[in-house]
Amino acid sequence: MTAPDRLLREIRTRPRAADRATDLYIVVLSVLVFVLPLARWGTQQVAPATQWSPPWWTAAIAAMLVAIGAAAAGRTRGPVAVSAPYVEWVVAGSAPLARRLRPSWWRSLLVTMAAVLFVTVVAVVSRSTWPDPVGAVTVSAVALGSGVLLSVVWLSGQARRWRNAAVLVLLSAGTGLAWTGAWRSLDGDPAWWSLLVVPVAVGTAVVVPRALSAIRPSRLRTQAIRWSRIEVFATTADLASAAAVLRAPTRLGRHWRPAFAAPPFVRRDLIGLVRAPGRTATGLGAAAAAGSLIPIAQNAVTPLIALISVAAAYVGVCFLSDGLRFHAFDRERPSAFGVGPGAAALQHLVVPTALLTLVMGSAAVLGGSPHVAIALALLVVACRALSVFKGHMPLELLTPVMTPVGEMSSAGRLIWLADAVLVALLVGGTTVSQASGWDAVAILVVAAGLVAVWARSRWRQ
User: Fold this and answer.
1) What is the value of pTM for the model shown?
2) Nearest CA-CA partner of 172 in 263, 67, 312
Protein backbone atom coordinates (compact mmCIF):
# COMPACT_ATOMS: atom_id res chain seq x y z
CA MET A 1 0.00 0.00 0.00
CA THR A 2 1.40 3.36 -1.01
CA ALA A 3 1.63 6.40 1.25
CA PRO A 4 -1.30 8.20 -0.45
CA ASP A 5 -3.41 5.06 0.02
CA ARG A 6 -2.64 5.02 3.72
CA LEU A 7 -3.38 8.74 4.00
CA LEU A 8 -6.79 8.40 2.33
CA ARG A 9 -7.64 5.49 4.59
CA GLU A 10 -6.62 7.41 7.70
CA ILE A 11 -8.60 10.55 6.90
CA ARG A 12 -11.66 8.56 5.90
CA THR A 13 -14.32 8.61 8.59
CA ARG A 14 -14.50 5.22 10.22
CA PRO A 15 -18.06 4.07 10.93
CA ARG A 16 -19.02 3.26 14.47
CA ALA A 17 -20.69 0.04 15.56
CA ALA A 18 -24.06 1.80 15.58
CA ASP A 19 -23.47 3.02 12.03
CA ARG A 20 -22.65 -0.50 10.88
CA ALA A 21 -25.79 -1.83 12.55
CA THR A 22 -27.87 0.84 10.84
CA ASP A 23 -26.35 0.02 7.46
CA LEU A 24 -27.04 -3.68 7.99
CA TYR A 25 -30.63 -2.91 8.97
CA ILE A 26 -31.12 -0.79 5.81
CA VAL A 27 -29.66 -3.54 3.61
CA VAL A 28 -31.85 -6.27 5.11
CA LEU A 29 -34.96 -4.08 4.94
CA SER A 30 -34.22 -3.12 1.32
CA VAL A 31 -33.86 -6.77 0.36
CA LEU A 32 -37.15 -7.69 2.05
CA VAL A 33 -39.12 -4.69 0.73
CA PHE A 34 -37.67 -4.22 -2.75
CA VAL A 35 -35.40 -7.02 -3.98
CA LEU A 36 -37.50 -10.05 -3.06
CA PRO A 37 -40.84 -8.67 -4.38
CA LEU A 38 -39.16 -7.53 -7.59
CA ALA A 39 -37.48 -10.91 -8.01
CA ARG A 40 -40.82 -12.65 -7.42
CA TRP A 41 -42.54 -10.40 -9.96
CA GLY A 42 -39.68 -11.06 -12.35
CA THR A 43 -40.12 -14.82 -12.03
CA GLN A 44 -43.84 -14.49 -12.76
CA GLN A 45 -43.17 -12.40 -15.88
CA VAL A 46 -40.18 -14.34 -17.12
CA ALA A 47 -41.82 -17.74 -16.60
CA PRO A 48 -43.67 -17.79 -19.97
CA ALA A 49 -40.54 -16.64 -21.79
CA THR A 50 -38.51 -19.50 -20.35
CA GLN A 51 -40.56 -21.93 -22.43
CA TRP A 52 -39.48 -20.30 -25.68
CA SER A 53 -36.81 -21.82 -27.90
CA PRO A 54 -35.49 -18.85 -29.87
CA PRO A 55 -33.18 -19.49 -32.83
CA TRP A 56 -29.46 -19.28 -32.28
CA TRP A 57 -29.09 -16.07 -34.26
CA THR A 58 -31.52 -14.25 -31.94
CA ALA A 59 -29.37 -14.99 -28.89
CA ALA A 60 -26.22 -14.06 -30.81
CA ILE A 61 -27.63 -10.68 -31.86
CA ALA A 62 -28.89 -9.98 -28.34
CA ALA A 63 -25.47 -10.76 -26.83
CA MET A 64 -23.75 -8.53 -29.39
CA LEU A 65 -26.10 -5.64 -28.65
CA VAL A 66 -25.47 -5.97 -24.91
CA ALA A 67 -21.71 -5.99 -25.52
CA ILE A 68 -21.93 -2.92 -27.76
CA GLY A 69 -23.94 -1.12 -25.09
CA ALA A 70 -21.34 -2.01 -22.45
CA ALA A 71 -18.50 -0.71 -24.63
CA ALA A 72 -20.37 2.52 -25.31
CA ALA A 73 -21.18 2.96 -21.60
CA GLY A 74 -17.47 2.80 -20.80
CA ARG A 75 -17.00 6.24 -22.35
CA THR A 76 -19.24 7.73 -19.67
CA ARG A 77 -18.67 5.46 -16.69
CA GLY A 78 -16.33 2.49 -16.81
CA PRO A 79 -15.61 -0.39 -14.45
CA VAL A 80 -12.61 1.52 -13.07
CA ALA A 81 -14.55 4.00 -10.97
CA VAL A 82 -12.46 5.95 -8.48
CA SER A 83 -12.98 9.24 -6.71
CA ALA A 84 -11.33 12.50 -7.73
CA PRO A 85 -9.02 12.62 -4.65
CA TYR A 86 -7.89 9.07 -5.39
CA VAL A 87 -7.04 10.10 -8.94
CA GLU A 88 -5.06 13.10 -7.77
CA TRP A 89 -3.12 11.40 -4.98
CA VAL A 90 -2.83 7.73 -5.95
CA VAL A 91 -3.38 7.33 -9.69
CA ALA A 92 -1.06 10.21 -10.50
CA GLY A 93 1.75 8.63 -8.44
CA SER A 94 4.87 6.84 -9.59
CA ALA A 95 3.58 3.26 -9.27
CA PRO A 96 2.50 1.43 -12.46
CA LEU A 97 -0.98 2.50 -13.53
CA ALA A 98 -2.29 -1.06 -13.93
CA ARG A 99 -1.38 -1.90 -10.33
CA ARG A 100 -3.04 1.23 -8.97
CA LEU A 101 -6.29 0.62 -10.81
CA ARG A 102 -6.48 -3.13 -10.24
CA PRO A 103 -8.52 -3.01 -6.97
CA SER A 104 -11.28 -0.97 -8.59
CA TRP A 105 -11.31 -3.30 -11.57
CA TRP A 106 -11.66 -6.38 -9.38
CA ARG A 107 -14.60 -4.85 -7.49
CA SER A 108 -16.45 -4.06 -10.73
CA LEU A 109 -15.70 -7.52 -12.11
CA LEU A 110 -17.18 -9.24 -9.06
CA VAL A 111 -20.27 -7.00 -9.09
CA THR A 112 -20.88 -7.64 -12.79
CA MET A 113 -20.50 -11.40 -12.38
CA ALA A 114 -22.86 -11.37 -9.40
CA ALA A 115 -25.47 -9.35 -11.33
CA VAL A 116 -25.39 -11.69 -14.35
CA LEU A 117 -25.58 -14.74 -12.08
CA PHE A 118 -28.52 -13.24 -10.14
CA VAL A 119 -30.52 -12.62 -13.34
CA THR A 120 -29.73 -16.14 -14.51
CA VAL A 121 -30.90 -17.67 -11.23
CA VAL A 122 -34.17 -15.72 -11.43
CA ALA A 123 -34.72 -17.02 -14.97
CA VAL A 124 -33.91 -20.62 -13.97
CA VAL A 125 -36.22 -20.49 -10.96
CA SER A 126 -38.99 -19.13 -13.21
CA ARG A 127 -39.16 -22.41 -15.13
CA SER A 128 -42.20 -24.60 -14.59
CA THR A 129 -40.05 -27.74 -14.19
CA TRP A 130 -37.15 -28.51 -11.90
CA PRO A 131 -33.86 -28.03 -13.81
CA ASP A 132 -31.40 -30.81 -14.36
CA PRO A 133 -28.49 -30.42 -11.88
CA VAL A 134 -25.85 -30.74 -14.58
CA GLY A 135 -27.71 -28.24 -16.73
CA ALA A 136 -27.99 -25.80 -13.82
CA VAL A 137 -24.24 -25.99 -13.27
CA THR A 138 -23.66 -25.46 -17.00
CA VAL A 139 -25.91 -22.40 -17.08
CA SER A 140 -24.21 -20.96 -14.00
CA ALA A 141 -20.78 -21.45 -15.56
CA VAL A 142 -21.91 -19.76 -18.78
CA ALA A 143 -23.34 -16.88 -16.71
CA LEU A 144 -20.05 -16.37 -14.89
CA GLY A 145 -18.09 -16.50 -18.15
CA SER A 146 -20.48 -14.01 -19.73
CA GLY A 147 -20.00 -11.68 -16.76
CA VAL A 148 -16.23 -11.79 -17.18
CA LEU A 149 -16.46 -11.13 -20.94
CA LEU A 150 -18.93 -8.29 -20.40
CA SER A 151 -16.63 -6.67 -17.85
CA VAL A 152 -13.65 -6.86 -20.23
CA VAL A 153 -15.73 -5.29 -23.02
CA TRP A 154 -16.78 -2.55 -20.62
CA LEU A 155 -13.15 -1.92 -19.66
CA SER A 156 -12.08 -1.79 -23.32
CA GLY A 157 -14.68 0.88 -23.94
CA GLN A 158 -13.39 2.94 -21.03
CA ALA A 159 -9.80 2.60 -22.27
CA ARG A 160 -10.89 3.53 -25.84
CA ARG A 161 -9.29 0.35 -27.20
CA TRP A 162 -11.87 -0.08 -29.92
CA ARG A 163 -10.08 -2.89 -31.79
CA ASN A 164 -10.12 -5.05 -28.69
CA ALA A 165 -13.74 -4.07 -28.11
CA ALA A 166 -14.71 -5.11 -31.66
CA VAL A 167 -13.08 -8.53 -31.22
CA LEU A 168 -14.76 -8.98 -27.84
CA VAL A 169 -18.14 -8.05 -29.31
CA LEU A 170 -17.71 -10.82 -31.88
CA LEU A 171 -16.82 -13.23 -29.08
CA SER A 172 -19.98 -12.15 -27.30
CA ALA A 173 -21.95 -13.48 -30.26
CA GLY A 174 -20.43 -16.88 -29.47
CA THR A 175 -21.59 -16.38 -25.89
CA GLY A 176 -25.14 -16.05 -27.23
CA LEU A 177 -24.74 -19.39 -29.00
CA ALA A 178 -23.50 -20.95 -25.76
CA TRP A 179 -26.55 -19.60 -23.92
CA THR A 180 -28.91 -21.46 -26.29
CA GLY A 181 -27.09 -24.75 -25.73
CA ALA A 182 -26.80 -24.28 -21.97
CA TRP A 183 -30.46 -23.37 -21.63
CA ARG A 184 -31.54 -26.52 -23.43
CA SER A 185 -29.34 -28.56 -21.12
CA LEU A 186 -31.70 -27.68 -18.27
CA ASP A 187 -34.08 -30.30 -19.69
CA GLY A 188 -31.48 -33.07 -19.41
CA ASP A 189 -29.79 -32.68 -22.80
CA PRO A 190 -26.24 -31.60 -21.79
CA ALA A 191 -24.38 -29.31 -24.15
CA TRP A 192 -20.80 -29.56 -22.92
CA TRP A 193 -19.49 -27.37 -25.73
CA SER A 194 -21.16 -24.35 -24.13
CA LEU A 195 -18.61 -24.56 -21.29
CA LEU A 196 -16.01 -23.25 -23.74
CA VAL A 197 -17.25 -19.80 -22.74
CA VAL A 198 -15.37 -20.07 -19.44
CA PRO A 199 -11.82 -20.55 -20.83
CA VAL A 200 -12.49 -18.05 -23.60
CA ALA A 201 -13.66 -15.44 -21.07
CA VAL A 202 -10.67 -16.13 -18.83
CA GLY A 203 -8.39 -15.85 -21.85
CA THR A 204 -9.71 -12.39 -22.65
CA ALA A 205 -8.34 -11.23 -19.29
CA VAL A 206 -4.90 -10.97 -20.90
CA VAL A 207 -5.95 -7.60 -22.35
CA VAL A 208 -6.84 -6.22 -18.92
CA PRO A 209 -3.34 -4.96 -17.90
CA ARG A 210 -2.85 -3.10 -21.17
CA ALA A 211 -6.36 -1.69 -20.98
CA LEU A 212 -5.75 -0.47 -17.43
CA SER A 213 -2.49 1.14 -18.51
CA ALA A 214 -4.23 2.84 -21.44
CA ILE A 215 -6.72 4.70 -19.23
CA ARG A 216 -5.61 8.28 -18.90
CA PRO A 217 -5.72 9.79 -15.39
CA SER A 218 -7.27 12.93 -16.88
CA ARG A 219 -10.13 10.84 -18.25
CA LEU A 220 -10.61 9.18 -14.87
CA ARG A 221 -10.68 12.58 -13.22
CA THR A 222 -13.29 13.83 -15.69
CA GLN A 223 -15.48 10.78 -15.12
CA ALA A 224 -15.17 11.07 -11.34
CA ILE A 225 -16.12 14.74 -11.32
CA ARG A 226 -18.99 14.18 -13.74
CA TRP A 227 -20.35 11.29 -11.70
CA SER A 228 -20.13 13.26 -8.45
CA ARG A 229 -22.21 16.01 -10.07
CA ILE A 230 -24.74 13.44 -11.22
CA GLU A 231 -25.00 12.04 -7.70
CA VAL A 232 -25.59 15.52 -6.27
CA PHE A 233 -28.36 16.28 -8.77
CA ALA A 234 -29.94 12.85 -8.35
CA THR A 235 -30.02 13.07 -4.55
CA THR A 236 -31.75 16.46 -4.82
CA ALA A 237 -34.37 14.98 -7.22
CA ASP A 238 -33.13 17.11 -10.13
CA LEU A 239 -33.03 14.33 -12.71
CA ALA A 240 -33.11 16.74 -15.66
CA SER A 241 -29.84 18.34 -14.58
CA ALA A 242 -28.34 14.91 -13.89
CA ALA A 243 -29.20 13.79 -17.41
CA ALA A 244 -27.80 17.02 -18.83
CA VAL A 245 -24.41 16.25 -17.25
CA LEU A 246 -24.32 12.95 -19.14
CA ARG A 247 -24.87 14.59 -22.51
CA ALA A 248 -21.78 15.30 -24.52
CA PRO A 249 -21.53 18.83 -25.96
CA THR A 250 -22.48 19.15 -29.62
CA ARG A 251 -19.62 20.40 -31.77
CA LEU A 252 -20.78 19.43 -35.26
CA GLY A 253 -22.16 22.12 -37.54
CA ARG A 254 -21.98 25.15 -35.26
CA HIS A 255 -21.91 27.52 -38.23
CA TRP A 256 -24.63 25.87 -40.27
CA ARG A 257 -27.26 28.29 -41.53
CA PRO A 258 -29.50 26.14 -43.75
CA ALA A 259 -32.74 27.63 -44.99
CA PHE A 260 -35.62 25.57 -46.31
CA ALA A 261 -39.38 25.91 -46.39
CA ALA A 262 -40.44 24.97 -42.86
CA PRO A 263 -41.62 26.76 -39.72
CA PRO A 264 -38.60 28.17 -37.85
CA PHE A 265 -38.67 25.87 -34.84
CA VAL A 266 -39.31 22.80 -36.98
CA ARG A 267 -36.26 23.77 -39.01
CA ARG A 268 -34.20 24.24 -35.86
CA ASP A 269 -35.23 20.82 -34.54
CA LEU A 270 -34.22 19.13 -37.78
CA ILE A 271 -30.87 20.89 -37.74
CA GLY A 272 -30.37 19.83 -34.13
CA LEU A 273 -31.01 16.19 -34.99
CA VAL A 274 -28.46 16.33 -37.79
CA ARG A 275 -25.89 17.98 -35.50
CA ALA A 276 -26.21 15.14 -32.95
CA PRO A 277 -26.15 12.00 -35.13
CA GLY A 278 -25.40 9.67 -32.23
CA ARG A 279 -28.41 10.75 -30.19
CA THR A 280 -30.61 10.76 -33.29
CA ALA A 281 -29.55 7.24 -34.29
CA THR A 282 -30.18 6.03 -30.73
CA GLY A 283 -33.65 7.55 -30.69
CA LEU A 284 -34.57 6.12 -34.07
CA GLY A 285 -33.21 2.71 -33.11
CA ALA A 286 -35.22 2.68 -29.88
CA ALA A 287 -38.36 3.69 -31.80
CA ALA A 288 -37.79 0.94 -34.37
CA ALA A 289 -37.29 -1.62 -31.59
CA ALA A 290 -40.49 -0.47 -29.89
CA GLY A 291 -42.50 -0.77 -33.11
CA SER A 292 -41.15 -4.23 -33.92
CA LEU A 293 -42.02 -5.49 -30.42
CA ILE A 294 -45.66 -4.39 -30.54
CA PRO A 295 -46.93 -7.34 -32.67
CA ILE A 296 -45.02 -9.73 -30.42
CA ALA A 297 -46.40 -8.07 -27.28
CA GLN A 298 -49.99 -8.40 -28.48
CA ASN A 299 -49.61 -12.17 -28.84
CA ALA A 300 -47.43 -12.75 -25.77
CA VAL A 301 -48.80 -14.33 -22.61
CA THR A 302 -46.93 -11.86 -20.39
CA PRO A 303 -47.21 -8.05 -20.37
CA LEU A 304 -43.44 -7.77 -19.94
CA ILE A 305 -42.90 -7.47 -23.72
CA ALA A 306 -45.44 -4.65 -23.90
CA LEU A 307 -43.75 -2.80 -21.05
CA ILE A 308 -40.38 -3.14 -22.78
CA SER A 309 -41.91 -1.81 -26.01
CA VAL A 310 -43.41 1.23 -24.28
CA ALA A 311 -40.17 1.91 -22.41
CA ALA A 312 -38.20 1.76 -25.67
CA ALA A 313 -40.66 4.15 -27.32
CA TYR A 314 -40.32 6.61 -24.44
CA VAL A 315 -36.52 6.43 -24.64
CA GLY A 316 -36.76 7.12 -28.36
CA VAL A 317 -38.94 10.19 -27.97
CA CYS A 318 -36.62 11.52 -25.24
CA PHE A 319 -33.69 11.44 -27.66
CA LEU A 320 -35.74 13.03 -30.45
CA SER A 321 -37.37 15.87 -28.49
CA ASP A 322 -34.45 17.94 -27.24
CA GLY A 323 -35.90 21.05 -28.89
CA LEU A 324 -39.11 20.69 -26.88
CA ARG A 325 -37.15 20.17 -23.68
CA PHE A 326 -34.94 23.23 -24.22
CA HIS A 327 -37.96 25.38 -25.06
CA ALA A 328 -39.83 24.28 -21.92
CA PHE A 329 -36.76 25.05 -19.81
CA ASP A 330 -36.31 28.56 -21.33
CA ARG A 331 -39.96 29.46 -21.79
CA GLU A 332 -39.51 32.70 -19.84
CA ARG A 333 -37.18 34.14 -22.45
CA PRO A 334 -38.51 36.57 -25.06
CA SER A 335 -40.13 34.89 -28.05
CA ALA A 336 -37.98 34.32 -31.13
CA PHE A 337 -38.94 34.63 -34.79
CA GLY A 338 -42.10 36.47 -33.79
CA VAL A 339 -43.69 33.23 -32.52
CA GLY A 340 -45.31 33.04 -29.10
CA PRO A 341 -44.29 30.44 -26.51
CA GLY A 342 -47.39 28.27 -27.04
CA ALA A 343 -47.06 28.22 -30.82
CA ALA A 344 -43.34 27.50 -30.49
CA ALA A 345 -44.10 24.52 -28.24
CA LEU A 346 -46.51 23.16 -30.85
CA GLN A 347 -43.85 23.52 -33.54
CA HIS A 348 -41.36 21.67 -31.35
CA LEU A 349 -43.83 18.76 -31.17
CA VAL A 350 -43.92 18.31 -34.93
CA VAL A 351 -40.55 16.63 -35.48
CA PRO A 352 -40.66 14.04 -32.64
CA THR A 353 -44.28 13.18 -33.42
CA ALA A 354 -43.63 12.73 -37.13
CA LEU A 355 -40.45 10.69 -36.65
CA LEU A 356 -41.85 8.48 -33.92
CA THR A 357 -45.09 7.67 -35.74
CA LEU A 358 -43.26 7.03 -39.01
CA VAL A 359 -40.55 4.79 -37.56
CA MET A 360 -42.78 2.84 -35.17
CA GLY A 361 -45.50 2.39 -37.77
CA SER A 362 -43.02 1.18 -40.37
CA ALA A 363 -41.40 -1.24 -37.91
CA ALA A 364 -44.79 -2.73 -36.98
CA VAL A 365 -45.92 -3.26 -40.58
CA LEU A 366 -44.43 -6.76 -40.78
CA GLY A 367 -46.46 -7.83 -37.75
CA GLY A 368 -49.65 -6.28 -39.04
CA SER A 369 -50.01 -3.69 -36.25
CA PRO A 370 -48.92 -0.31 -37.70
CA HIS A 371 -52.10 1.43 -36.48
CA VAL A 372 -51.47 0.31 -32.88
CA ALA A 373 -47.84 1.46 -33.11
CA ILE A 374 -48.87 4.90 -34.39
CA ALA A 375 -51.43 5.29 -31.59
CA LEU A 376 -48.84 4.27 -29.01
CA ALA A 377 -46.42 6.81 -30.48
CA LEU A 378 -49.02 9.57 -29.97
CA LEU A 379 -49.47 8.54 -26.33
CA VAL A 380 -45.73 8.50 -25.72
CA VAL A 381 -45.26 11.95 -27.27
CA ALA A 382 -48.05 13.32 -25.07
CA CYS A 383 -46.41 11.77 -22.00
CA ARG A 384 -43.09 13.35 -22.98
CA ALA A 385 -44.76 16.75 -23.21
CA LEU A 386 -46.35 16.12 -19.81
CA SER A 387 -42.89 15.44 -18.39
CA VAL A 388 -41.07 18.47 -19.82
CA PHE A 389 -43.90 20.90 -18.97
CA LYS A 390 -43.98 20.05 -15.26
CA GLY A 391 -41.49 22.76 -14.27
CA HIS A 392 -39.88 22.80 -10.85
CA MET A 393 -40.86 20.49 -8.04
CA PRO A 394 -43.48 21.98 -5.67
CA LEU A 395 -42.11 22.93 -2.29
CA GLU A 396 -44.81 21.01 -0.43
CA LEU A 397 -43.28 17.77 -1.70
CA LEU A 398 -40.11 18.57 0.24
CA THR A 399 -41.88 18.66 3.62
CA PRO A 400 -41.65 15.50 5.77
CA VAL A 401 -44.61 13.11 5.73
CA MET A 402 -44.63 10.92 8.83
CA THR A 403 -46.53 7.64 8.69
CA PRO A 404 -46.65 4.55 10.94
CA VAL A 405 -44.11 2.89 8.63
CA GLY A 406 -41.70 5.82 8.54
CA GLU A 407 -41.09 9.04 6.63
CA MET A 408 -42.72 8.78 3.18
CA SER A 409 -42.09 12.15 1.54
CA SER A 410 -39.68 10.46 -0.88
CA ALA A 411 -42.58 8.45 -2.34
CA GLY A 412 -44.37 11.63 -3.35
CA ARG A 413 -41.24 13.02 -4.95
CA LEU A 414 -40.67 9.79 -6.88
CA ILE A 415 -44.24 9.78 -8.18
CA TRP A 416 -43.92 13.43 -9.22
CA LEU A 417 -40.66 12.72 -11.04
CA ALA A 418 -41.92 9.60 -12.83
CA ASP A 419 -45.58 10.42 -13.41
CA ALA A 420 -45.28 10.63 -17.19
CA VAL A 421 -43.31 7.39 -17.39
CA LEU A 422 -45.80 5.63 -15.12
CA VAL A 423 -48.74 6.80 -17.25
CA ALA A 424 -47.03 5.61 -20.43
CA LEU A 425 -46.13 2.21 -18.93
CA LEU A 426 -49.45 1.55 -17.20
CA VAL A 427 -51.78 2.77 -19.95
CA GLY A 428 -49.65 1.84 -22.93
CA GLY A 429 -48.43 -1.48 -21.60
CA THR A 430 -51.87 -2.58 -20.42
CA THR A 431 -53.56 -1.59 -23.68
CA VAL A 432 -50.98 -3.19 -25.97
CA SER A 433 -50.95 -6.46 -24.02
CA GLN A 434 -54.69 -6.76 -23.34
CA ALA A 435 -56.41 -5.15 -26.36
CA SER A 436 -55.90 -5.62 -30.06
CA GLY A 437 -56.86 -4.03 -33.37
CA TRP A 438 -58.86 -0.86 -33.45
CA ASP A 439 -59.96 -1.27 -29.83
CA ALA A 440 -56.38 -0.70 -28.74
CA VAL A 441 -56.09 2.22 -31.14
CA ALA A 442 -59.20 3.89 -29.70
CA ILE A 443 -58.01 3.47 -26.11
CA LEU A 444 -54.52 4.79 -26.87
CA VAL A 445 -55.79 7.80 -28.85
CA VAL A 446 -58.26 8.77 -26.11
CA ALA A 447 -55.53 8.38 -23.48
CA ALA A 448 -53.17 10.50 -25.60
CA GLY A 449 -55.80 13.22 -25.81
CA LEU A 450 -56.36 13.22 -22.05
CA VAL A 451 -52.63 13.34 -21.36
CA ALA A 452 -52.29 16.20 -23.87
CA VAL A 453 -54.95 18.16 -21.98
CA TRP A 454 -53.07 17.48 -18.74
CA ALA A 455 -49.81 18.64 -20.33
CA ARG A 456 -51.52 21.81 -21.61
CA SER A 457 -52.72 22.61 -18.10
CA ARG A 458 -49.16 22.23 -16.81
CA TRP A 459 -47.89 24.51 -19.56
CA ARG A 460 -50.42 27.20 -18.65
CA GLN A 461 -49.41 27.02 -15.00
Assistant:
1) 0.77
2) 67
